[in-house]
Design a protein that fits this description.
The protein is of the alpha/beta class and about 475 residues long. The chain is about 35% helix and about 15% strand. It has a single domain, classed as Glycosidases (TIM Barrel), CATH 3.20.20.80. An eight-stranded parallel barrel has the order 1-2-3-4-5-7-9-12, surrounded by four helices. It is globular, with a radius of gyration of 22 Å. This is 6-phospho-beta-glucosidase.
């Protein structure tokens, strides 16, 4: 008897139709022009070493601050957006500099020059058919608000932020569908100045003031979500958190419990944004730290206005141990955690864990059942620009390590989608080289586009396409099919 075998052709695995592909930047890391067009200083302008060093008293004090000029997107946005369009972006995440719109932060009237600049940015995005995803506050609280009010410690910040957001919705609401309230809001636990505009030094900041600032940010986020929906029900507002999954260093149940405690400190922010109230474990933390938050009935009602989607950054995972002798913070990690002995690390000590991204997507989807959006994922590395007669501009970077990182993470993203996760899109962090938030360096490069400027501030600012530029371009054009090549 002869058996005839039939072979089913392999199917090409692509991402869902309408999946948004793109990249993400922050105003303070790309724009430059820090006092142009009526803008005044933000907290970033007194952080010349990023979060690894102390702030200076005024923007002109201390060593060079690369963020003052950054990569000059303020003057080169037309060129840069054209490069994003060449990559095939369907979405571009960028932030609006609060101090361009309200230079001090507490004025009654916005700065028209600042508003007009973002009109022009949106004009270019529309010209190329790129959907904007706008972060309202991305680590750039106006310096005046930090010094005068101690940032988000003061309840007055809620009103200033509401006024600012309302101006943005009125001006751009017909052009921008997707909004994020705060960048990596859970980072305030570890970097109070950068994420909360809190001028009091971290080692002098009381638990009461820190948690009160967190509460004010959460209320402001929910209030702005409500305002957006009242102004236009079609607007989609999301929260944004740092995703950092943790694994127990050993199978010891105490290590497993340590993981739960660590992850809950991050989950709490998403829980409030998605469920509209503080979770019991967070309230227990407040009790045990002796913190009695000032929460009004109006605050509680405001918090019930939940987000439409959850967005997050993902760069690394960590381990946790209940043994104090083993609980040693890894290099480059502001949030704590033990390095995983099974994983490689970047040049800055960030451990590379593609499977961790799939874990995050599954955990967040199961926990909140809201659409997700990966709005930061990338690899910082020391790139070498080399001559290449065949490359546009005659120079390129052979960054196969970045291609490997991108491919390995996107393969895990596709697995998560196949698991049933509702994922709106993916924006690579730093599609063009940016000034690093953590170290304020340009040598920590993320981009598919190389910018000719170094840590001393020297360079022509010319743009060059890296090898990864063509790779990501192909991934987008094929809607992910080339990941299997």
């Amino acid at each position: 008897m002869t058996t005839t075998r039939t072979t089913t052709p392999a199917t090409t695995r692509t991402f869902p139709e309408g999946f948004l592909w793109g990249g993400a930047t922050a105003a303070n890391q790309v724009e430059g022009g820090y006092l142009d067009g009526g803008k005044r200083a933000s907290i970033q302008d007194v952080m010349p070493q990023g979060i690894v060093g102390p702030p200076v008293s005024e923007p002109t004090d201390g060593p060079l601050n690369l963020k003052h000029d950054a990569i000059d997107f303020y003057h080169r946005y037309v060129e840069d957006i054209a490069l994003f369009a060449e990559l095939g972006f369907s979405v571009y995440r960028f932030s609006i500099a609060w101090s361009r719109i309200f230079p001090k932060g507490d004025e009654e009237t916005p700065n028209e020059e600042g508003l007009a600049f973002y009109d022009r940015v949106l004009d270019e995005l529309e010209k190329h058919g790129i959907t904007p995803l706008v972060t309202i506050s991305h680590y750039e609280t106006p310096l005046h608000l930090a010094k005068t009010y101690d940032g988000w410690v003061d309840r007055a910040m809620i009103g200033f932020y509401e006024r600012y957001a309302r101006v943005l919705f009125e001006r751009y609401g017909s052009r921008v569908k997707y909004w994020l309230t705060f960048n990596e809001i859970n980072a305030v636990l570890h970097a109070p100045l950068m994420a909360g505009g809190i001028w009091t030094p971290k080692d002098e900041l009381s638990a009461k003031d820190l948690y009160q600032a967190i509460h004010h940010e959460l209320v402001a986020s929910a209030s702005v979500t409500r305002i957006a929906h009242e102004m236009d029900p079609e607007l989609k507002v999301g929260c944004m958190v740092i995703a950092m999954p943790a694994y127990p260093l050993t199978p010891d149940p105490a290590d497993v419990l340590k993981v739960q405690t660590f992850e809950r400190s991050n989950y709490a922010f998403g829980d409030v944004h998605c469920r509209g109230e503080y979770p019991g474990y967070f309230l227990r933390t407040l009790r045990e730290e002796g913190v009695d938050l000032e929460i009004t009935d109006a605050d509680r009602e405001t918090l019930t206005h939940t987000v439409d989607f959850v967005s997050f950054s993902y760069y690394m995972s960590v381990c946790q141990s209940a043994d104090p002798a083993k609980q040693i913070k890894g290099e480059g990690n502001i949030m704590g955690g033990v390095p995983n002995p099974t994983l490689p690390a970047s040049e800055w000590g960030w451990q590379i864990d593609p499977i961790g991204l799939r874990k995050v997507l599954g955990d967040y989807w199961d926990r909140w059942n809201k659409p997700l959006f990966i709005v930061e994922n990338g690899l910082g590395a020391k790139d070498q620009l080399v001559d290449d007669p065949g490359a546009p501009g005659g120079k390129t970077v052979h960054d196969d390590y970045r291609i490997d990182y991108l491919r390995d993470h996107l393969l895990q993203v596709r697995e998560a989608i196949d698991d049933g996760v509702n994922l709106l899109g993916y924006t690579w962090w730093g599609p063009i080289d940016v000034v690093s938030a953590s170290t304020a360096q340009l040598s920590k490069r993320y981009g598919f586009i190389y910018v000719d400027r170094d840590d001393s501030g020297s360079g022509t600012l010319a743009r060059y396409r890296k090898k990864s530029f063509g790779y990501y371009q192909g991934v987008i054009a094929s809607n992910g099919a080339t990941l299997d090549d």
